[in-house]
Amino acid sequence: MNVLNYSTYYDKVLGGWLGKCIGGACGALSENNKNILHYTIDNVFPEVIPPNDDLDLQILWLQEGLEKIGVGMTREDFGALFAKYNVCLANEYAVSIRNINLGILPPVSGTYDNSYFLNSMGCPIRSEIWALLAPGSFRTVKRYAEMDGSVDHGSESIYGEIFNAVIEAAAFFETDREALIEIALKEIPSDCRQYKSIHFALACYREQTDWATARNRLVRKFGSMDASYSVVNLGLTMLAFLYGEGDYTKTLLYAVNGGYDTDCTAATALSILGIMAGAERTPQFWKDKIGNELVVGTVDIDCRYPTIEAFAKATCAAGLSFREAGLWDVQLTGIPAEAVPSLPETLQKPLSIEVCYQGSPVIGIGEESVLLLTVKNHTPEEVSGVLEIRGPDYLVCSLSSVSLTLCPQAETTLTLNIKAPETLCALPMKNLFQATCCGVSRDFGLFGAMRMKLFGPYWDNYDTTQYPEDPYEEKMQKLPNGDGDIHAMFNGFVNINREYLPEDFQQLPQDFEWVNIHGSEFDLEPAVTYRGPACVYLVHEFTLEHAVPNGHFHFGCNAPAKIWVNGELVLDNQAYYAWTIFNCTAPASLKAGKNRIIFKLSRTDAFRFSVFCRNWEDRGRFICNITSLGE
Known about the structure:
Oligomer: single chain
GO molecular function, one term: metal ion binding
Number of strands: 23
Structural class: alpha+beta
InterPro entries: Ribosyl_crysJ1, Ribosyl_crysJ1_sf
Distance between the termini: 68 Å
Strand content: 15-25%
Cofactor: Mg(2+)
Keywords: Magnesium, Metal-binding
Helix content: 25-40%
Number of helices: 16
CATH architecture of the largest domain: Orthogonal Bundle
CATH superfamily of the largest domain: ADP-ribosylation/Crystallin J1
CATH class of the largest domain: Mainly Alpha
Radius of gyration: 28 Å
Protein name: ADP-ribosylglycohydrolase family protein
CATH topology of the largest domain: ADP-ribosylglycohydrolase fold
């Protein structure tokens, strides 16, 4: 068993937080630039230290989570804190918070409707707290990192947070950089891309490839147009950690000049070095640069830690509680009298209720959703009670109450079927349920699919019996002998500017199909089975209880599209893109009461379209209180 003296523990915790603050501040200047940069020691530090969500969320976990709940924090606790206090509503954060507000809790909050940012950097950057609370204790840091990461991410990003937490926990005792990487790699699956990116960085270093070549090779192999893609960022972090040769400034500059999510890469690299060296051996030049003030700004809390040193002391006090709870695999010596555990005892509830969606957490008109409810008895006594399930009266549940008797430490699982009748005239996006038993409750929700009218598909052909040449002025394709036009075999064209329906939309045809859209991404392939270029119109009518005069749409599209909101053309996109959720934006003004959005979408091979709408009067949160009309 490793042995750690308390004074060394505090010095390394402070060193880790200093590295986090210094690296985050320096990397913020160049964040999201995906090319090699050229910062130097003279210009890499900002004039004003910005707040950093990478650090702020870890302050949130300690102050509002652990210090109020104790070491027994659950993934549901993480989700509740994240949705309540996080005011940095970028990317996966905004999607996760919307999901949680819809009752879709971790771990599903991190994966549902979050395909683009599923494996981004939002959670690997929150790893330090777990390593500093449980040095050298891999089973503990892995458990908390997984719960933390599941709030807003899926597999690769969670593996990234686990890797970072383990390498930081190991850095309390191991001084060899290559050995540290090998230790942490053992704790994630060897077939995941995260492992392969990090292993590639290690191989380049061992082969003595120069840094710039190694960096470019890694980006070509693991890069993404998303600057926050975690797989490439962890590889870049490890390149900086290795090629920096243990030198603080070299490591920092390699991380920042490697590009991509540079506040994340630089902060993690320096956190590891800071833990290895401790605060005492952190270069005074950088300690003078960062100072001692703890800058907080992306979480809505009154931070109780005015300085980095105060935060380090609070971290160590919480670490003593982790040790007291048996979560350390390390012996701690030399504990001073004034150093006492700070966390409250987590009260163990006699029962717990777990919810497992059998598929996506969505229901649409005419559809059924299936869930499993597992009730666990955590006591040494037999427990009897009634499980009651309450939900919206417009949805039909297969269970409302069930009598249960559970043996000590036993559990039972029940299947819950929820139906939305075909006759429903309206379906809210937010559909909340509550399961209760013996005074214990569990909330959960289903996303109400957006009900839309689908017109089309439409496309254009040309008749070779009427036109000697292609009227669309496409390149003619002749047979090898020069005869005939084989293009006619494959023609099929779409022009977003052609009105396949009258675009005053006063009189829409009755030839349409109802479709349920199960998230922000429009999966139209089941409804549009025609193969080839095509155009469709989708009409979405919905109600809002309150007006949203200051909204903002984010449209993701891979082909030309037009969108009308309450009769106003708000998007006229003529371009083709690689799809992201932010390809196009437009202001939104939505009324209290009934609204109507018409989407005109085109495709070449497949539709790829998505829509989110923010409400800037609600801190930019994604709107989720709409009710789709189905008649």
